[in-house]
Amino acid sequence: MKNNQLNFYEHEVLHELKHYLPAQAPLKDFIHHNTLHAFQHLKFYDALKNASEIFGYKTTLSLNDYRVLYNNGRINNTVLDKVISDKKGISNLEEWKLKLLQQNYDYALDSRIGKLKANWKNNYRFDMDAMVHPMLFRTVGSYLDQGIAIWNFPIHHKGFLASILELERMSYGSIFNSKRVKSLLLNNEYSIANLLNILIGDETLFAQYLYDQQFAHQGWSGMVSFVEDNPKALLDPKDISLHDFIVFELLLEINALDNQFGSHWKPLKETIKTIPTPLFEPVKTTELKEVIMLWQDAFEWSYYDQVLAGIKLSKSKIEDKTPKSFQALFCIDDRECSIRRYVEQNDDNCETFGTPGFFGVEFYYSPKNGKFYTKLCPAPVNPKHLIREINTKGNKDNDAHYSKYSHSLLSGWIISQTLGFSSAFKLAINIFKPTMSPATTSSFKHMDKFSQLTIENRNVNHKEGDLQIGFTIDEMAVRVDALLHSIGLVENFAPLVYLFGHGASSINNTHYAGYDCGACSGRPGSVNARVMSFMANHKKVREILALKGLVIPETTQFMGALHDTTRDEMEFYDEDLLQVKNKALHEQNKLNFNRALDENAKERSRRFILTNTKQTAEKVHEDVKLRSVSLFEPRPELNHATNALCIVGQRDLTKNVFLDRRSFMNSYDYKIDLDGKYLTNILKPIGPVCGGINLEYYFSRVDNQKLGAGTKLPHNVMGLIGVANGIDGDLRPGLPSQMIEVHDPIRLLLIVEHFPDIILKAINDSPETYQWYINEWIHLVSVNPIDRKLQIFKEGVFVNYKPLTEHLKTISELNTLIESNEENFPVYLYNN
Hints:
The chain has about 850 residues and is of the alpha/beta class. The chain contains 26 helices and 22 strands. Helices cover about 40% and strands about 10% of the residues. The strands form five sheets. Strands 3, 4, 5, 6, 7 and 8 form a six-stranded mixed beta sheet that branches. Strands 14-12-17-18-19-20 form a six-stranded mixed beta sheet, with helices on both faces. A hairpin with a 7-residue loop joins strand 3 (about 365) and strand 4 (about 375). It is globular, with a radius of gyration of 28 Å. The N and C termini lie far apart (about 65 Å).
């Protein structure tokens, strides 16, 4: 609905404002996404230019950073020459190269946001934010609180603003000191337009003022906006809207001004000498921005070119149809890139695959005695099924001082005087000898290993609310068929097929959900692995699949498992169901997995400053496990740091290329998908999932103060929904510095093994998918499966690409390389 004003339409302004605010979910659902999603309709560099000019974000490295990378050899001179020649013409190469290497530029960042609101301080000598933000943050934080606060917000069942109004009517005290503000609230005269008229007085400035106001605390505003649009995001739901949040802040601002100047101060318009530049006026391109764009392209392609050369130079093996010792499905997660390599290295006759870690089964999960459902599938999916955990055998650890009795007056005093001292003693001991505790976020606690799950539905009317309990036989068959065809596993089945979900264990880590499986909405994938294994083992499911030509031998058994990527440990489920022969094989396979876990821990450890990587793999692994439970360790693992690639194709494509744990890897066999049906489904989530991870790391790295969360050391958890610095700070979206310090901010390179016309058809299936590639938020390269000819997707078509790198060094032993340094390695050919 439009207001009476000619230039301010509240609904449209709020709708647009919500689009630009951060869209990060609460901590329990921390899922990576494109930080600059609001600009994704633009070409990548146009988006960076606009985001920088309008909102003051740093969107690239600095000019000096690029020059240092060039001098250190990280930016290849030949690649730089090619980038400049392609963009500016070969005749202008020397001129532009001189600009990149030697020209001085004014690098001052003068953003448009905040200029209008700054007039309170400039013209009134009044710090509006300092007067308003503490009360604003404390009030909304108390209202949204999910369990930290000892006392609940007095009234919250009526919605945020309605609760504030009820408090004003029923309480002796008041949030506001100004009689005028109380009157506006109690007499229902608090429309946004009316309040802005009092504050600003010029409706042409209303929209810009709201942007200035909300981006002065974009974290809280973004969280309110997200909760409004996703009410189920909070376990304890709260009725709040950006509209109500803005009204409350406007009332607080008028209240602060009345307290400072009385009720006769002039609206802002009467003191402004120069109207600020409108926020969304077209942004001009400067020579500095062009220079930075050339540097960024050169930085990216200095790495990409090595990768593509590796694919071109590595030799394809003859297709091997010999029986496999075992097969293992891992998540496409870049952290699984190295564990797969070691598993294959320890057994030449095994086979590994990569697939999204929810394994194609979408559902809500209800753990035994759980009060809430947990989504175990990609965030945009709305499951219609529920898996419940029943008949658990294990006992959950607990500490008495975490119980509800510690909140009461008498028992709380007793606990603090008794258990409080023992807790302090335990804390002191834990500093010197870290151990697992009930406070540890453990991926293995997500599901009881010995529990049962309600996977099979024998009656479609068996529901819990709107959710069907379990899956029918036909529904199972569809999902097993889709999974196996998507990765190319349709024949030559091994006796054992492992499905490894993944999760992470840590302590003192507020962003724990960002370490778990993104395909499982930031949770471990253990339940999904176990559910899919049950489906694939089901006799009736196999009968349906056999009718379709997909025959799984009776001797083949699927087994769910979990890989903890922080501790490098594995857990296996339903081992008691194995056939006698397979049980013996499983015990042999576990020796392989244990050795691979040691070696994987050692490879990861080269990034950890306090770990002696030159120790034996077994000793390093013990140190790595201690890190995961160490209270003073802010980096339990580096998660997706350094991610740069996503490869969709057969394992043979990169098996002999050392990629240094930098690639998402999705198995795919073009031969069983000539029309690209499965490829279309694979590429749809690549953008929001892998591209989202890549871009959140990118932007958190280049601007850790505005687009990232800063250092985690002073972080304070606010209401279990976000983190802030101190007790009155803004919520910090993005990633803390301890997750991105070693990350190279480059876009994702997606490499797909199929013919260009099929890939083009697949990405054209939906506008949302196509946007990622046509606007170059992700680079896309096709690999011809016949001759490995390379083509890059540019401006809607594929064009030939010949790597500038003609030779790559070959390595046959990783130990010496791993022990050499902690920097990113170049691409090597790998003779294992």
